[in-house]
């Protein structure tokens, strides 16, 4: 039985972050990976390929649309197969450079390919071989949660893993799920020329966000020609005459959507089934996610869970953040806790949806006094001169302390505003201080200052550059 100081289960960003930290501490570490290649979801089938396709689709859209009277767009020729092949080359290059080659520098890390299974508290088995450690970090990630829809087992369907590798452009697709993954896919593929329909079970897309955000985004996506139907109950799916037919009910009426392909974007579940964490006494929550405390430790001392497999926010940057914390807590007795109070996040649609901190609902639930201001982009000089005033900037502050509680943004490239808001929240910078800071004129960042000013000032009555 091979024994190690640390066993890492998984090969994605969380595991690699932990491996790098463990290597610095000269810990004899075993990294076990299977399923996706080294690098996990983000580089192989998630962040990298999706943002590549989103950006490619933006170029197509801009070549066909212009708000400027003196610019006549001529359209663009699309070689869909070449787009996908270039995407594959990019992914392969980044996977090799950022993960495979990196292992050469990790002299204390050994990699074993195969699925890990807990035999007991300190023993895992991989392809019949046993490995032991008193310290185990689970970073096995997540995958698409497949809903129990009648007929689904008889109909070929895709998730982002398989869709992004399809070199023949679909003429039409049905996407079940109106969360961030489904919407990013919908807009990118629609702009590349695929007919797209989105079926969402909740009453609106991005249902965890406030109504003003979801209504704004729905308006823009629908205007582009994406079919969005919310509040549906999926009855069944069938394969008929070479098409996929999805039967659904809405407001008591049964309808059918047909397309060449069916894509599931129905949330995520943790990759813990094959792991059998119950053999080690590890407690799990809904969809197999592992319960952890603020120090990322499970209910079993010495066993930690990081990244998408636990119950904290599922982002590649939070996964990497957790990897280092878990190692430090296991071996340095650092007592470090995760802090997501100023965690920024982005939905990469166009316009983007971005946020940080609390919204109005969360502030109310925490009994924190709050007030809200909403600045439409029609009041932001950068947006006005770009002839693109889609969206708004919403700030939430505590009127007693003048501290920023949160921000919600719908705007083209609105994600670029989140870090200023995040730093303000993290370092207790007041709204007054945001207003007093010099922001370059004709930048989107100036919009954040104007939004902050709008708590006390009617910005419509200000001259350009006034402060």
Task: List key phrases describing it.
467 residues; alpha/beta
Overview of the structural elements:
Helix 3 (47-64) crosses helix 6 (180-191). The termini are far apart. Helix 7 (211-224) links the parallel strand 11 and strand 12. The strands form six sheets. Strands 4-3-2-8-18 form a five-stranded parallel β-sheet, covered by helices on one side. A five-stranded antiparallel β-sheet has the order 19-20-23-22-21, with helices on both faces. It has a four-stranded mixed β-sheet with strand order 1-7-6-5, with no helix packed on it. The protein has 13 helices and 23 strands. Helix content is 30%, strand content 25%. The mean pLDDT is 96. It has 467 residues and is of the alpha/beta class.
Present the secondary structure layout:
Blueprint: E1 2-3, E2 6-9, H1 13-24, E3 29-33, H2 40-45, H3 47-64, H4 80-100, E4 109-113, E5 116-120, E6 123-126, E7 129-132, E8 136-138, E9 142-144, H5 160-163, E10 172-176, H6 180-191, E11 195-200, H7 211-224, E12 227-230, E13 233-240, E14 243-250, E15 253-259, E16 261-264, E17 268-270, E18 303-305, H8 316-331, E19 344-347, E20 352-357, H9 360-365, E21 371-376, H10 381-385, E22 392-398, E23 403-411, H11 418-426, H12 431-436, H13 445-453
Parallel strand pairs: 1-7, 2-3, 2-8, 3-4, 8-18, 10-11, 10-16, 11-12
Antiparallel strand pairs: 5-6, 6-7, 9-17, 13-14, 14-15, 19-20, 20-23, 21-22, 22-23
């Amino acid at each position: 039985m091979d024994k190690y100081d640390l066993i890492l289960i998984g090969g994605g960003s969380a595991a690699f972050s932990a491996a790098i930290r463990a290597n610095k501490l000269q810990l004899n570490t075993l990294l076990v990976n299977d399923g996706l290649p080294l690098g996990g979801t983000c580089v192989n089938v998630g962040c990298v390929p999706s943002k590549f396709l989103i950006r490619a689709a933006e170029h197509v859209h801009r070549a066909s649309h212009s708000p400027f009277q003196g610019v006549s767009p001529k359209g663009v020729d699309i070689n869909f197969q070449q787009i996908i092949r270039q995407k594959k080359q990019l992914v392969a290059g980044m996977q090799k450079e950022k993960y495979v080659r990196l292992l050469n520098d990790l002299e204390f890390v050994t990699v074993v390919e195969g699925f890990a299974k807990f035999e007991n508290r300190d023993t895992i088995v991989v392809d019949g071989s046993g490995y032991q450690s008193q310290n185990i970090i689970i970073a096995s990630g997540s995958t698409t949660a497949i809903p129990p829809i009648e007929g689904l087992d008889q109909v070929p369907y895709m998730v982002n893993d398989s869709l992004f590798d399809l070199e023949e452009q679909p003429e039409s697709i049905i996407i079940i799920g109106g969360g961030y993954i489904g919407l990013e896919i919908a807009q990118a593929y629609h702009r590349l020329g695929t007919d797209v329909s989105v079926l969402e079970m909740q009453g609106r897309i991005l249902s965890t966000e406030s109504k003003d955000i979801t209504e704004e985004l729905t308006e823009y996506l629908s205007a582009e020609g994406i079919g969005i139907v919310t509040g549906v109950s999926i009855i069944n799916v069938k394969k008929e005459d070479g098409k996929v037919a999805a039967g659904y009910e809405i407001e008591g009426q049964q309808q059918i959507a047909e397309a060449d392909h069916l894509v599931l974007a129905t949330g995520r579940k943790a990759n813990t089934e094959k792991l059998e964490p119950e053999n080690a006494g590890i407690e799990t929550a809904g969809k197999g996610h592992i319960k952890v405390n603020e120090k990322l430790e499970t209910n079993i001392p010495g066993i930690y869970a990081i990244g998408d497999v636990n119950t904290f926010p599922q982002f590649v940057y939070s996964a990497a953040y957790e990897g280092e914390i878990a190692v430090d807590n296991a071996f340095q007795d650092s007592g470090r806790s995760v802090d997501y109070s100023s965690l920024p996040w982005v939905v990469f649609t166009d316009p983007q949806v971005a946020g940080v901190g609390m919204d109005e609902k969360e502030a109310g639930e925490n009994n924190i006094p709050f007030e809200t201001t909403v600045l439409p982009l029609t009041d932001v000089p950068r947006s006005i001169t770009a002839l693109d005033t889609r969206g708004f900037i919403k700030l939430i502050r505590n009127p007693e302390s003048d501290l920023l509680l949160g921000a919600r943004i719908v705007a083209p490239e609105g994600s670029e505003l989140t870090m200023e808001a995040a730093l303000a929240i993290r370092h207790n910078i007041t709204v007054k201080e945001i207003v007093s800071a010099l922001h370059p004129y004709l930048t989107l960042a100036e919009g954040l200052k104007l939004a902050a000013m709008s708590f006390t000032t009617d910005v419509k009555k200000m001259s350009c550059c006034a402060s």
